[in-house]
TrEMBL record:
<dbReference type="InterPro" id="IPR050386">
    <property type="entry name" value="Glycosyl_hydrolase_5"/>
</dbReference>
<dbReference type="GO" id="GO:0009986">
    <property type="term" value="C:cell surface"/>
</dbReference>
<keyword id="KW-0378">Hydrolase</keyword>
<keyword id="KW-0136">Cellulose degradation</keyword>
<comment type="similarity">
    <text>Belongs to the glycosyl hydrolase 5 (cellulase A) family.</text>
</comment>
<keyword id="KW-0119">Carbohydrate metabolism</keyword>
<dbReference type="GO" id="GO:0008422">
    <property type="term" value="F:beta-glucosidase activity"/>
</dbReference>
<dbReference type="GO" id="GO:0030245">
    <property type="term" value="P:cellulose catabolic process"/>
</dbReference>
<feature type="domain" description="CBM6">
    <location>
        <begin position="447"/>
        <end position="582"/>
    </location>
</feature>
<dbReference type="InterPro" id="IPR005084">
    <property type="entry name" value="CBM6"/>
</dbReference>
<dbReference type="Pfam" id="PF03422">
    <property type="entry name" value="CBM_6"/>
</dbReference>
<dbReference type="InterPro" id="IPR008979">
    <property type="entry name" value="Galactose-bd-like_sf"/>
</dbReference>
<dbReference type="InterPro" id="IPR017853">
    <property type="entry name" value="GH"/>
</dbReference>
<dbReference type="GO" id="GO:0005576">
    <property type="term" value="C:extracellular region"/>
</dbReference>
<keyword id="KW-0732">Signal</keyword>
<dbReference type="Pfam" id="PF00150">
    <property type="entry name" value="Cellulase"/>
</dbReference>
<protein>
    <submittedName>
        <fullName>Glycosyl hydrolase family 5</fullName>
    </submittedName>
</protein>
Amino acid sequence: MIPLKTFILSVFMCFLGFAGFAQGFLKANGTKIVNEKGENVLLRGIGLGGWMLQEGYMLKINKEAQQYRIRERIEELIGPKQTEEFYNAWLANHTRKIDVDSMKRWGFNSIRLPMHYNLYTLPVEKEPVAGKNTWLEKGFALTDSLLSWCKANQMYLILDLHAAPGGQGNDLNIADRDPSKPYLWDSEANQQKTIALWKKLAERYKDEPYIGAYDILNEPNYGFQNPTEDKNGTKEKLNAPLRKLMVEITKAIREVDQKHLIIIEGNAWGNNYNGIFPVWDKNMALSYHKYWNYNTQESIAHIIKARAEQNVPVWLGETGENSNVWFTDAIRLFEENNIGWSWWPLKKIGFNNPLEIKSNPNYDALVKYLNNGGNKPKDSNVYSGLMELATYLKLENNIIHHDVIDAMIRQPFSEETKPFKPNIIENNAIIYAVDYDLGKNSRAYFDTDTADYHVSTGKRSAGNRGRIYRNDGVDIAKDSTQYEKYYVNNIEKGEWLQYTVNVAKKGNYTLKINTAANTTDGKISIQVNGKTIVKAVAVPNTGNNKTFIPFEIKNIPLQSGVQKIRVLADEGGYNFSYIQFIK
């Protein structure tokens, strides 16, 4: 049970978080972000990673995975015209009004836009006149459209310079860094273009209250004092060039815009604030990024301390890429500390985000070639695969992971479980093992390996080892013999799954449990509404762990109406596909 004090706090924080929407410009008020009425605003948002800036991992590309190299390599295969066609389709389809409408409906109230500078201005080496800035309408038009959709939904839009001219760190994919070109940090021209871009953005949006803030430089990661041995700035003590540039960007913004909240990030992917303080603007917030560590008060102690000492708000600008268990625990931790958050990302080719982009065979062949080499795929196949992928970008073609959304919005402050699917129990009804209830670990299911904490532990763990279908700790695999069918595998002693069902008719039922095992060690118990009905039934050896054969458990009494059935592993070592109910 949640302690009463914690429950009351959570309800209060939820009220505060949503009270302030459609109430004008956000601003810093001591350690809080407030609206123009002075009401606390708790931002619950998602970053649109992969839209303006593709990071290779989102596309399953892990070799030469900066966007510029991905594009160059595609162009080598299909030529500039068809490559341009693909990227235009990508920008048109990735984020549309339907995406923003959906985010609002799901319960999010803000969006972080990771911007690539090259959609707004030319690279310094391509400027016709050195020192002058050519402005490109493409990026501004995309931003205008996104802002209009946010306005329609009363959501705040936070502008994030994700790829700065020259690149802001040695994690090359993040900022689409070309190491053959001058760095942001050793190029005055790149720094001046960065400053000018922010002034241009501020001029354009200075009177837009639904622009929530300017996140002026995403994840700097550069060792200024020792760039050879401290490439990402984790040990940096001074951060003098970073502070200098952020001060200059702030000055340029304030020349044209006195209203908007400015967000700064430390070095080392947003977390190293050595030498950055004191803050230099009255309307400023700190951002930090958090991945793969424990969700304890100790894990955020550094940023809580900075918030108190500098008397400024904190916003968690980027986090995610983990399991639902991690998501729920993290969001509860943030909100209990009045820290708004923005998840990463909305969609990618991958399962642990709200939306999953489906792949296709021609695209898979391209990825295999880009990662591993070998025989060059036909240009017509490459083009077909890319354009099909661009079509799959649209939300209506995405896989919507309702379990991820539920873990982020409902579960942080709810112990309630909900059915994953309707589960109407009539004669011969089948419930698939993977469709267990929505809810927290130890409430809707119990699994012994639930999240990846490798930053804290030094050891990676998988959560769902199959990385498919759902994002809880439960291990899931795809059944290669049936289209779009899945099963639970790697079942260990003590683990269990709960199914909320609606029984049409009271009576005794035979349960056909479809399992696969190459051992006779497995044992299953069945509980109904918390009462054990059968105990430690042996799971038969089917010859191997992919040959599924149902076995029967008879005389299971079920009342009509809503019932909760748990399938418990007294001993593991088997795979579980479905339950069929025979009256």
